[in-house]
Amino acid sequence: MAEKSREKPIEMDDDNFFMSLAFLTSDRSKDPVTQVGACVVKDGILISTGYNGMPWGCSDDILPWDGTAKNEEENKRPYVCHAEFNAFVNRGDKDLSGCTLYTGLFPCKDCAKLIVQTGITTVVYMSDKHKEKKKYIIARDILEKANVEVREFVPTYSKLTLKSSATQNPFTASQK
Ligand SMILES: Nc1nc(=O)n([C@H]2C[C@H](O)[C@@H](COP(=O)(O)O)O2)cc1CO
Ligand SMILES: [Zn+2]
């Protein structure tokens, strides 16, 4: 009997796996404009995940997400917990020193400070679409000054097609 030929599975490395997980996590966000997901990883093991949303117990429906209200306090932006922030909160009592953070969007300056203070040593991001804005210039500067390694993720895995408004691009990876 002829033996069935088996294709060797393509290896899915840490970067492709954990960024995909960050994007999957982002789908839980109620933000209709920008869904962001993040995960924290130590030595190839998942420590926690987070996505952007209102603080626990605050309804998602009491304030508009779209930034159209006249006063700042009537918009969602100042209230929302960022994906990275929630990933840190969700870690429980685990030590984050030496961890890698995967995030769909480049961290803001407040999350950059948390990254440094928690001892995270590497940040992998998919999009830095707001990089010219001051708060991201400052964020990058904070990470650089604190010697946090920052790198852009370039997908190389063929089996994934994920979409997220974090990048405004379909995340269509292909094996190179
Ligand atoms: N790194 C990030 N993580 C996040 O979770 N967000 C969230 C907060 C908001 O819900 C949404 C849009 O953020 P902003 O562009 O208005 O600020 O994305 C935004 C950024 C960008 O700083
Ligand atoms: Zn942030």
Automatic annotation (TrEMBL):
GO terms for biological process: nucleotide biosynthetic process; pyrimidine nucleotide metabolic process. InterPro entries: CMP_dCMP_dom (IPR002125), Cytidine_deaminase-like (IPR016193), dCMP_deaminase (IPR016473), dCMP_deaminase-rel (IPR015517), Deoxycytidylate_deaminase_dom (IPR035105). GO terms for molecular function: dCMP deaminase activity; zinc ion binding. PANTHER family: DEOXYCYTIDYLATE DEAMINASE, DEOXYCYTIDYLATE DEAMINASE-RELATED. The keyword Zinc applies. Coiled coil: none annotated. Belongs to the cytidine and deoxycytidylate deaminase family. Residues 13-149 form the CMP/dCMP-type deaminase domain. The keyword Nucleotide-binding does not apply. It holds the Pfam family dCMP_cyt_deam_1. This is dCMP deaminase. Zn(2+) binds at residues 82, 108, 111. Its cofactor is Zn(2+). One of its GO terms (cellular component) is cytoplasm. The active site is at 84 (proton donor). Keywords: Hydrolase, Metal-binding, Nucleotide biosynthesis, Zinc.
